[in-house]
Amino acid sequence: MPTGRGRNKKNGKGKARRLDQRHKQQGATAAAAEQSDEAEASGEDALVHDSVEPELALKFYKRALDLCPQDPALLDEAADLLLQLGAADDAKALLSRSIEVAPDASAGKWLYMAQLHEGEEALKLYNRGLTLLEAALAQPAAAAAAAAATSTLTSIPELRQQLSAACCAVAELYMTDLCFAPDAEAACAAALDRALRHDAGGPEAHQAMAHLRLSQGRAADAVPFAKEAARRVGAALAALEGDVMGGGEGGPGPDYGFRVSAAKVLLECADADASCCEDALAVLAGLMQEDDEDVETWFLMGAAFFKQDPPDLELARAHLERAAEMLEKIREHMRKERRSGNRGGGSAQFVFPYEGQVALVREQLALVAEAEADPDIARGGEGEGSEGEGDSDGPDGMDTDE
């Protein structure tokens, strides 16, 4: 079941996305506190600092680990910080130690480790984590709540949501690394059915199901899932904003990359239901408010305005031309980097994505120009082909994360 949608792997950093979205750092555990007041103080300081200064927090956790090197909670939290900093190999070493010391203490370590592997090995690790999560949920309500409270989760709904998200990750494996497995399509569908059964209100399961239906060529069946995922994204962001406005700390809502993916899915669904363009534009408008220097967002907004029925050619061209200008600035920056002799690190990594992105923008601009030349479409009429011409790989093909 091959599909063009790949996993988000930003040089090891993208793999660190937590499956439990309401993530809470635990600091030093009771065992560490019993062994040393210094370890406890270190953990408390890390709890204060890790959300804004992961480098500083990591120093505190390392001090605590020097005193309590076999504490699984400290190992897990230090690994999480290393993942945030892009140190995947170091994180893997700590997770391996945690698994060796306390393999059944929490599911999170197995899910983290799965994100650092690929193919069959990742599947085995995910399944081990899923087994632990289901065992916790199978306990009587009081025991399950206690199990959740002693992990990075605080409630049974959060435990269910982590299980649902892990099932989505398994489904994604079958749409990418394991797409040529004989039972890939059936296994993917089974994982998503399981994700929906345990869904506790997050958008992941519905978006993953929309991905599957699109890969099967069933765009009409993908529409309700894509729309529900977008609705949940909007609701989560609204709740987060309301919490902050009310004086609360808020929490990690759907991340930027997930919302970009949601917009792409909606644009793919637009050929089956034109109203998906409006949903996509709503998602993209929120992204634009957060970062108006993201070339991919400008490109996707241009594509969305073009795919509207009737298309808004003026806005489509304006956004696509802005994307082209931004790409030209990126190219100039790359040239300066090369002339200055800085050939390592950033520049070389972006040569191929740049060329691909320029090609997509030019392709979409050519479609806009063709539509502008058609008097029916230019007037906003029912010109034939206006919807179909927007059906290209452009909206789903541009990826600035490469």
From TrEMBL:
Which InterPro entries has this protein been placed in?
Answer: TPR-like_helical_dom_sf (IPR011990)
The signal sequence is none
Its transmembrane ranges are none
**Mind telling me which Gene3D superfamilies this protein's record contains?**
Tetratricopeptide repeat domain
Biased composition range(s): Acidic residues = 384-402
Q: Cite the residue spans of the region called Disordered.
A: 1-48, 372-402
Q: Compositionally biased, Basic residues: which spans?
A: 1-16
- Name of the protein in its database record: Assembly chaperone of rpl4
